[in-house]
Design goal:
- By secondary structure, the chain is an alpha+beta fold.
- It has one domain: Sandwich (Immunoglobulin-like), CATH 2.60.40.
- It is built from two helices and seven strands, in the order αβββαββββ.
- A hairpin with a 2-residue loop joins strand 2 and strand 3.
- The relative contact order is 0.22.
């Protein structure tokens, strides 16, 4: 058994060991949300149809996302939805959210 281990070890060293393929790390950027006006109660943010949480919470912290095209939707009762596409091509993108009340 010791001899088999020595032979296998020698073969591994001679072959250069197991091949490793480097995996590219996805580029990550940060979405910064600025709010124009007051933050309505119960306002919610969704990015790429994934709920992110309340607008004030998300705006205070920003969102890390992979570089590429995304869509952000902000909703609040009594307000028109804010829907905006953006391209996170750099390390930081700022989107200003302006929610407008539903007209009577």
């Amino acid at each position: 058994m010791k001899r088999l281990y020595a032979v296998v070890s020698a073969l591994c060293v001679a072959c250069g060991g197991p091949a490793t393929v480097p995996h590219p790390t996805p580029s990550i950027g940060v979405l910064v949300i600025k709010v124009d006006g007051q933050v309505p109660e119960r306002s919610q943010v969704a990015i790429d149809d994934q709920a992110m949480g309340p607008l004030d919470f998300v705006a205070a912290r920003g969102v890390s996302l992979p570089v590429g095209a995304h869509r952000m939707t902000v909703t609040a009762p009594g307000y028109l939805p804010f829907d905006r596409g953006f391209d996170l091509a750099s390390k930081r993108v700022v989107v200003t959210v302006a929610l407008r009340q539903v007209p009577d």
